[in-house]
Amino acid sequence: MGKIHYSIVDVFSEGKYTGNPLAVFKNSGSLSSSEMQKIAKEVNFSETTFILSDSKNAGGYDVRIFTPKEEIPFAGHPTLGTASIIQSDILQSKVDNLTLNLKSGQIAVSFHHQEDVIWMKQNEPTFGRVLDSKKVSEVLSINNECIDTRFPIQEVSTGLPVIIVPLLSLEAAKKVRINKEKYYQLIEHTDAKAILVFNPETYCPEHHLNVRDFADYYGIPEDAATGSSNGCLAAYLVKYAYFNKTEINVQVEQGYEMKRPSLLFLNASIVKENINVNVGGKVEKIAQGEWFL
Predict the structure, then answer these.
(1) Considering only CA atoms, which of 18, 78, 20 is closest in space to residue 204?
(2) Residue whose C-alpha is closest to residue 80's, from 263, 253, 234, 270
(3) Which of 8, 71, 100, 140 could connect to 286 by a Cys-Cys bridge, CB 3.0–4.6 Å?
(4) SS3 letters for 144-203?
(5) Alpha carbon distance 63, 72 (integer Å)
(6) Domain check: are 7 and 102 in the same one?
């Protein structure tokens, strides 16, 4: 019987057993796609990652990301959590930068050791179709009046598309319940399969935004912390000057409704018509062990 080594980390953590849990499998290039998918389903975290080799390829480490249902090209908390394991377990020394080779392309990761925060630079965002607020409010099971109509409901992608929905209040966010029938009707016609709702009221006064993220399509009814979607949100915030400026450095809370409080740092700016997006957070190592094949 073969075996493979793995670690469990909490990403965008505010301390142990907070943030979004991630399983990271090391030196897993011998596994087939089917085996990886079965392992991800067994683990049943929102995502599981597989580092194919301890060695670099074209300057970066080859990594694959799986939800319980399918492989995806990019995700935020798997990027940061996997980078943390590469540093601690493969390199076994502190580094300032490294690169992950994902399906969506190369993603640069930087370690700010003094603050104990890991940052990733996301791809240039693309902005897709604008959606009807009434249809989306029906998916969310809230009144249309809960949506902040000063800003569009729009598909945005920095590698994995999401539908961004601006809400007026924390009370509205708490009321969100996904109507699965209407949800699947909606995403039949969208590139994005996940929905992120955000609002300017927060549980913690030092935070700037509260976020919830829903992705039943990927087998994730609600996610505790979503780096990819929050990267899209960061791009959206500067494009539409949500804070009345085109450069932001904000703290976002997520996962509170799930009893998995998470903290994400968003940094974005518009430079010569391009939008630069960086998402950061802390990573806490929880466990490690052997997986029998």
Answers:
(1) 18
(2) 263
(3) 8
(4) HHHECCCCCEEEEECCCCEEEEEECCHHHHHHCCCCHHHHHHHHCCCCCCEEEEEECCCC
(5) 11
(6) yes
User: Which entry of 14, 42, 47, 181 is annotated as an active-site residue?
Assistant: 47
Same domain, 133 and 271: yes
Domain count, the chain: 2
Note the pTM of the prediction, 2 decimals: 0.96
Give the domain range for residue 213: 126-279
Q: Do 238 and 228 share a structural domain?
A: yes
In Å, the largest CA–CA distance within the chain is 59
Give the pairing of strands 194-199 and 209-215. antiparallel
- Find all residues with CB under 8 Å of 125, minimum gap 6, and list them: 156, 157, 158, 231, 232, 235, 236, 239, 275, 277
pLDDT, one tens digit per residue, over 168-178 is: 999 999 999 99
Do both 180 and 286 map to the same domain? no
* Residue 171: C-alpha distances to residues 143, 145, 166, 167, 263 (Å): 12, 12, 13, 9, 20
Let me know whether 101 and 171 are in one domain: no
Rounded distance between C-alpha atoms, residue 168 and residue 103, angstroms: 35
Q: Are 181 and 208 in contact (CB under 8 A)?
A: no
Annotated active-site residue 124? The verdict is no
139: CATH: 3.10.310.10
Of 254, 2, 284, 231, give the one whose Cα is nearest residue 117: 284
Same domain, 33 and 116: yes
| Amino acid identity at 239 | K
From the centroid of its chain, how far is CA 37? Answer: 19
Q: Does one domain contain both 109 and 137? A: no
Q: Are residues 18 and 87 in the same domain?
A: yes
Q: What is the pLDDT of residues 34-92, one digit of tens each?
A: 999 999 999 999 999 999 999 999 999 999 999 999 999 999 999 999 999 999 999 99
Alpha-carbon distance of 181 to 188, in angstroms, equals: 11
